[in-house]
Amino acid sequence: MKNKKLFYVLLVVLAVGLILVGCGSSEKASTSSNSSSSTSSSSDSSSSSNSSSSETTVVKIATQSPLSGPYSAMGEAIKLGAEMALADNAEKFKALGVELQLFPQDDQGDPKIGVSNAEGIVSDKQVLALVGHLNSGVARAAGPKYEAAKLPVVSPANTAVDLTTYGWATFHRIVAKDDVQGPAGAKFAFEDLGAKSVYVVHDKTAYGQGLAEAFQEGAKALGMNVLGFEGQEATQTDFTALVNKIVAMKPDAIYFGGMYNQAGLLVKQANERGFQGYFLSGDGSDNAELIKIAGVDNVKKTYITSVAGDASRTEEGKAWTQRYKEKFGKDSSTFSVYGYDATLVVLNALEKAINENGGKVPTREELNKYVSATKDLKGVFTTTTFDEKGDNINAEVFIYSFEEGTYPAKFIKTVSVK
User: How far apart are CA 261 and CA 371, in angstroms?
Assistant: First the structure.
């Protein structure tokens, strides 16, 4: 009996052991199976990733403009215009195997920050082009970085004459230069407003001083009496001493080369001290903020030249500005559409390069050749054909009046660059 019980005990132990061994084997097998499955999945994922990367290449288009600081209203307009252009063309480039990405950088209108950002831009191999800058002084400082990296640049706003005199193969702009804009403003003041004397002020920046000098040269050529020419720091907000001096001299007009934030303050303070003449400025004052700063009642005798046209003057432009407002929840400014059209120049060149390069994404140097060869490209508002220096031979200067206290300012006339 004992032997029989012992037999049954051993039998049970053996059975349990076999079950445990079976469970262990089963678990191990299951683990092995999962591992195998995981490896397979990983392999598939890697293959898919490789397959995806072979089918889709990320191309980044950088922007550099002030996204913070006193010039951010204009800088953001350029960035949003570029963003909209990329979104509008995303599907077309997906079909070409390209995923477009925006790479926006905030230069704050500061040349040092612009150079630092430029170093980061050119070090990112996925960045094939830049749309920017707003401020000519920033473009001048950062330009050598782009040139060394063979990165094509299309500016929607830079007007300083010298930017296309350095022999940079990579710099292009779709807007007119100051040596056209300045004299156009002087001619309008003299012939249309009847101004015979003017006091010229600038903000000591590359843009502001350059434009003021161009205006002064044009004014003198027309026989206008330039009563004064002086600079104020770009950070200055109190113009009391300057305005008192100007009011005492009673010029027919004040001309300011600089940005809208200071222009608005100068208009406001001059009116408060009894200035009765006209106030003129350039494209740096082409912004709704000028009215807010100066006050609606003070801008009625304010006129500007701008290298950026009002897109809403055309039916196509009206539709575009409506889409812009729906997309971003805000009104566009004149430089919004120039940010858009400058980006279209890049995308048009990129598309041609891919199609003529066996479907391959071009190098920066290859893309730059296509950008430079841009001819009769119609954007929402601009038509671009670059000359050998990178200037747009179709660029125009526009005259606007703030007499109605609204923005965009009232369009007066167009001055052709040709």
Answer: 34
Pairing between β-strand 197-202 and β-strand 396-401 as defined by DSSP bridges:
unpaired
Give 79-118 pLDDT, tens digit per residue. Answer: 999 999 999 999 999 999 999 999 999 999 999 999 999 9
**E runs forming strands in 15-70:** 57-65
Residues 365 and 356: their CA atoms lie apart, in Å, by 15
| CA–CA separation, 94 and 58 (whole Å) | 10
Name, in order, each residue with C-beta under 8 angstroms of 317's C-beta and a sequence gap of 6 or more: 310, 311, 337, 380, 381
Written as six digits, the tokens of 265 are 């303050």
Q: Give the angle 227-231-235 at the CA atoms, nearest 5°.
A: 140
CA distance 343 to 320: 15
Q: Is the dihedral of CA 103, 177, 146, 108 positive or negative?
A: negative
Distance CA 184, CA 191 (A): 10
Give the number of residues written for the chain.
Answer: 418
Give the angle subtended at the CA of 269 by the CAs of 225 and 213, to the nearest 5°.
35
**β pairing state of 197-202 and 225-231:** parallel
For residue 251, the SS3 value is: coil
Predicted TM-score (pTM) of this structure = 0.78
C-beta of residue 114 within 8 angstroms of C-beta of residue 133: yes
Q: What is the DSSP string of 285-300?
A: G-STHHHHHH-GGG-T
Q: Tokens representing 172?
A: 């292009």
**Per-residue CA distances from 164 to 151, 160, 260, 303, 401 (Å):** 15, 9, 25, 28, 30
Q: Taking the C-alpha atoms of 324, 329, 330 and 332 in order, what is their torsion angle to the nearest 10 degrees?
A: -10
Identify residue 106 by its one-letter amino acid code.
D
What is the per-residue pLDDT across 355-405, written as a single tens digit (0 to 9) for each?
999 999 999 999 999 999 999 999 999 999 999 999 999 999 999 999 999
**220 neighbors 249 (Cβ within 8 angstroms):** no
Instruction: For residue 319, give Cα distances in angstroms to 80, 148, 313, 322, 335.
Output: 16, 40, 11, 5, 16
Cis peptide before 133 (omega within 30 of 0): yes
> How far apart, in whole angstroms, are the C-alpha atoms of residue 304 and residue 288?
12
C-alpha separations of 201 from 178, 212, 255 in Å = 15, 7, 6
